[in-house]
Amino acid sequence: MHMRTLQDTKFSILELAPVRDDKSVEFSLKHALELAQYAEKLGYERLWLAEHHNMTGIASSATAVLIGYILANTQSIRVGSGGIMLPNHAPLVVAEQFGTLATLYPNRVELGLGRAPGTDQMTMRALRRGRQETEDQFPQDVLEILQYFDEPYVGQQIIATPGQGTHVPVWLLGSSLFSAQLAAKLGLPYSFASHFAPRMLDQAIKLYRENFQPSEYLSQPYVSMGVPVVVAETDAEAEKLATSPYQRVLGLIRGDLRKLKAPVESMDGLWSVSEKMAVENFLGKAQIGSTKTVKAGLENLLAQYDVDEFIFTCDVYDTDQRLNNFKLLMDIKNS
Predict the structure, then answer these.
(1) CB within 8 A of 157, min separation 6: which ones?
(2) pLDDT in tens, 151-172
(3) What contacts 332, CB < 8 A, 6 or more positions away?
């Protein structure tokens, strides 16, 4: 079997548009663009934005709008959603939004779909006011969107304009076995959310590959894997920078969804033993360290899972250090 190397593995970015505790939301949105422009220069494959709601620390809630802003100010990088949480939206609206983007920016737009709400119960009800949507509706909704992007069939009553015939690539995202099975059945590319829920990664990839049915979209399985990263000049420096994502995940576990915090010298005293374990489980696939350390870690992940693509998240606090993180990652790929 051909063993994939880092050189022939695609590198992409999942941008959560984190909001720093000392900066405005506007700063975060402009930094997301700055990151996309830098990623384009460095040769990243794609930059995706994730839909979250009612989180003061994440600025990408109006995902399609932010994608439009980034597309308008970049030239070639693919930009998409990782993902749009489909139960929050009518499929037609999603198809029209992404069909519009794809019409304005041909061959650069991608639609990753998730079936989780991406928020809490109360916010979910606010998003779905008047809609009786459930997650069980997800497979039907995905098929409906695929049809809106296809050529219309004879007698099709509802035409997505723009959308129809744009053939926007659709991906399924997931952290459980459900989306893996559906992606396999529909012959769609699959992205596993191991950047926050690595527990079922092994099973999900295996299930997807074993059950994959070739389709008009894809002739063989394609797997992308979420990996949190902090790369710096030394292991010690990376460990210090990583205290920002540690604090963020600790906040999530405590139900405190505040803004990204500056790094600290040590996490001792900030978390309990069980909280530390929970944070480490959440970040189970994280690669933190110098280029040498992270290179070895990524090679190890590749040997274990043989994925087609890594999609990286990075919660480094300082903007320049965050950009540098993505430069060092590309150095690793090309070394």
Answers:
(1) none
(2) 999 999 999 999 999 999 999 9
(3) 6, 231, 291, 294, 295, 298
Residue 191: which of 86, 300, 310, 107 has the closest Cα? 310
Percent over 90 (pLDDT), the chain:
86
**pTM: predicted TM-score of the whole model, two decimal places:** 0.95
| Res. 256: pLDDT tops 60 | yes
Structure tokens given for 150: 């296809």
Q: Where do the domains of the chain lie, and which CATH numbers do they carry?
A: 10-231+285-334 (3.20.20.30)
**Token pair of 149 as six digits:** 């992007």
